[in-house]
Structure of Integrase, catalytic region:
Amino acid sequence: MSVSKSGYYDWHKRPTNVISLETLKLYRLVRQLFKQSRGSLGNREMVKKLRKEGYQVGRYLVRKIMHRLRLKATQRRAYKVTTQRKHSDAVADNLLNMNFNPVSANQVWAGDVTYLKTGEGWMYLAVVMDLYSRRIVGWHIDKRMTTDLISKALMKAYNLRQPARGLVFHSDRGSQYTSKQFGKLLSSYGIRASMGDVGACWDNAVVERFFGSLKHDWIFKVAQPTREFMKQDVTAYMKYYNLERLHSANGDLSPVEFENSQLKVSNLG
């Protein structure tokens, strides 16, 4: 083994590091949470998760544990905008003006479309997010990027939430969102359209960050051989995102947890 006698006896005399049962449980939980996030949890987010589980830990300890367990989150790449405006269609005013924090649910929704690559070809995903809690309240995925794609996502959101008339739906100026068909759907629901300015990617930054998380924290971590596999994987992420993923804007609660906590507060009031 190419080890000298003195080196062996020196190693043999060293005290053995005994790992307690509690520490072993902590290690197992860190591995479990990291695996559940598909390797996307950094030490800052891991601290939040562990504290929710009752562990009083800091970043230094968690960073040390993750280093020891060789758990390293991968960095996210920039998000690329996909939709383009059809100039013959009408454009709505920007009612949001980068105010991404409405005071209650079903006041402002935001939508966008992104592309996802599979071994069988491209898929396109349209989402509707309630900006109050960052919850995805409607989504639809298909192999074609059409007005029907975004319409079905909005229909699912409307059927789930049943919002009052006057809700604002914010999007970019893509041809699907400026189409007459989608405009009529918004009007039938009593929803007011709002659209970001030309070339201002930050006008829908919250949804763009969601797409970044979906792709680089989840989709890109495994092979996506078929369109059906992609649908199932997107479904799995929607469940993880809404129920498990913590948001600093929500006081480090998941979207569903945040909505439920605010509902309890309002009921007590």
